[in-house]
Amino acid sequence: ATVSEPAQKCCTENIQPFLASILEELMGPVSSGFTEVRSLFDKEVNEIIQDFQKTNDITKLKENVDQLMNLPFNSVKMEPCYLKVNLLQELLQDLKSRFKVYHIDFVIQRTQNFMQELMENAVYTFEQLFSPSRQADSAKVATTMEKVKLRVLK
């Protein structure tokens, strides 16, 4: 009871007025990272579609889709996504001194984990929606992949 009122006053005067601007500042790198995840997924599926249109090889298509399933665990391909979030390191340094924010690395790591999870969900959903169509007429497979990709991105 004796701490509640001073803590409430401190929070109301020294933290709450800045929360909106802090959130806006932090969301820049986070949004940028998630946009990069979306772009990477789009690029990878487009490459699969283009490869299939050139070859019409169902076996190669299956291999490419299987490789797509490993995309979230491919650190080289996911690195550009993760780098976008590393900008939080600089932004959080200012918050660390002003508001005693600790565990900056944890915030960045958790954000990167969410990015990987989002990619896992995207490739899994793509595979689940597309797999029944793999055996379809090869002329329709590329169109179906494009539709599935758009559905996943939506």
Description of the molecule:
Residues 9-154 form the Niban 1/2/3 domain. InterPro entries: Niban-like, Niban_1/2/3_dom. Belongs to the Niban family. The protein has 154 residues and is mostly helical. The chain has one domain. It has seven helices and no strands. Helix 2 packs antiparallel against helix 4. It is elongated and about 75 Å long. The chain starts with a helix and ends with a helix. The mean pLDDT is 88.
In round numbers, the mean pLDDT is 88
Q: How many structural domains?
A: 1
Strand fraction equals under 5%
Q: What class do helices, strands and sheet pairing give?
A: mainly alpha
User: Residue share in helices?
Assistant: over 70%
How many beta-strand elements? 0
- Please tally the helical runs, counting DSSP H or I stretches of 4 or more residues: 7
Helix-strand sequence: HHHHHHH
Largest sheet geometry? none
Poorly predicted regions: none
Categorize the overall geometry.
Answer: elongated
Describe how the helices and strands are arranged.
Blueprint: H1 4-14, H2 16-55, H3 58-69, H4 75-86, H5 88-99, H6 104-130, H7 138-153
Helix pairs in contact: 2-3, 2-4, 2-5, 2-6, 2-7, 4-6, 6-7
